Amino acid sequence: MKIILTHEVEKLGGAGEVVTVKDGYARNFLIPRGYATVWTKGAQRQIDQIAESRRKRATEDIEQAREIREALEATVLTITKTAGANGRLFGAVTTADVAVAASDVAGKPVDRRSVNLHTNIKSVGEYSGQIKLHTEVVASIKIAVIAA
Fold first, then answer.
1. What architecture is the 2-62 domain classified under in CATH?
2. What is the DSSP string of the chain?
3. Delimiting residues of CATH 3.40.5.10 domain(s) in the chain
4. Which class in CATH covers the domain with range 64-147?
5. Which residues form the Ribosomal protein L9 domain (predicted)?
6. What's the pTM value of the predicted model, to 2 decimals?
């Protein structure tokens, strides 16, 4: 039986894929749980349209991510924190702090989970890190931590 997967199913495929499975597996497991729908010509046309729009959106996203990467790599992200006399911070610079600073430069929100700091930042100085903007685009950033 030909079915269209609506969710990712392990060892079978991802959402939007057309796969052939045994009738019982489709009727008794996949379709009742909402993991798949029956394949028809009309549904196939709809899948083709969705795939085309995803491809267009993906190329636009990659181009936008590359522009943001250039902007981030051209600047040094400055983060101001309170520090003691010896330059040691009260607390640490977190990925959320870096994401806020990167969002200001990029003009687009940056998720804190996409920020990768190479070390824990607990003192004043210059550091480096990476921000994953897209699956194919990673920006190398420079971070300057200064005392408030």
1. 3-Layer(aba) Sandwich (3.40)
2. -EEEESS-BTTTB-TT-EEE--HHHIIIIITTTTSEEE--HHHHHHHHHHHHHHHHHHHHHHHHHHHHHHHHHHSEEEEEE-B-TTSEEEEEE-HHHHHHHHHHHHSS---GGGEEESS-EEESEEEEEEEE-SSS-EEEEEEEEEE-
3. 2-62
4. alpha beta
5. 13-40
6. 0.64
